[in-house]
Amino acid sequence: MTTKISQWHKVALLAAGISASMVSEAWGGNVPLYQLHSDGTIWQSTGVPCNGSNCPGWVQLGVNAIQITAGAGQLYMLQTSWDGDYQIFRFTGQACTPSSSPPDANCPGWALMGNSLYLVYWSQIYAAGGAFVAYSPGYGGPGFIFQYSTGFSTQQCESACPWLAIDDNTQTAAGIWLGDTGLFQRHFDGSLWKFTGTPCSMYQDDGYYDWGSCPGWVQIDGNPNTISMATGKAAAYQMWQNGFIWQYTGTPCNPSGFCTGWEQVGNNQNGKIGNIGITTQITAGGNLYQAQNNGSIWQYTGVPCSTTIIGSFCWGWTQIDNNPNMAYIVAGPNTVYEVHNTGSIWQYTGIPCNLSTNVCSGWTMLDDNALNVSVVYGF
Known about the structure:
The chain is mainly β. Helix content is 3%, strand content 44%. The strands form nine sheets. The chain has a four-stranded antiparallel sheet, with no helix packed on it. The protein has a four-stranded antiparallel sheet with strand order 4-5-6-7, with no helix packed on it.
């Protein structure tokens, strides 16, 4: 596993639109698409779509999870042990053996990566590319972000290896996003920060190792309107509370806090007359997608907004669905998945909506299970 953001995978942005060959490739065998059920079981898609109400394309991988995340072909889970400790496991490749008493299947394919550390308990885990990080809100103090890496020397992290603190801040983790373009966090004041690869310093206190200064962050925005981010294969994006979407151009804020490194790519003016929704979610993989509160889903074509004397116009979006049952979306490297409020999972096949008939036929159902509570894709 690598140690610095600059060393992570750099993959070019895929062209807008999805070809039939891409769809076939995505369905050609096991894909790193996973779901977590409310009973704690973990399932991986084999790529086989449903046949009516029969959805056989899933294999059980784990049990007793409270969160899952995936990246670079690796799947991780967070769970609590019998004594209430928080533990992180990595999937080693062996699927579960079914049990006559589900969900208590035999699932031996997991390796322990770490228990909660001193004064730290895990609450969220994040994976993408070759990186894996965990967040802890601490015990009434600052929040901690840890990076898992065997690449750091023992002189750098001492007994804390292989978990190395990279932030220790009372403002930490109003939001954390990890992707091929880097590790980002939002502070409670709305400012955005990017990790540069420098871990926190360490010192010994009463026999325990604590963390000192954490200089490895650079501010990239300071806007209180920011509520969310998405990290794709080639770019990072932010969403404002009014639904506007911005792409990071790579320029950090200057020392006085002036932040110019953003280009507007969305403001909901998507070319549809009437019934224009407000963006409620963005997700990014090979492409950028937005979901709106009217159930519509849009794919970014790569054309940024243009500004005239009468305002900004953002025409670089193609509508790909319009379904009131849409709950949230999850981006893959060459497609996007839609999760309905019933728990069903749908894959976009590349056919955009026909705006003249308001028909959006480009979706295939992969599962229809009310136990589904979380879907992740492992880049």
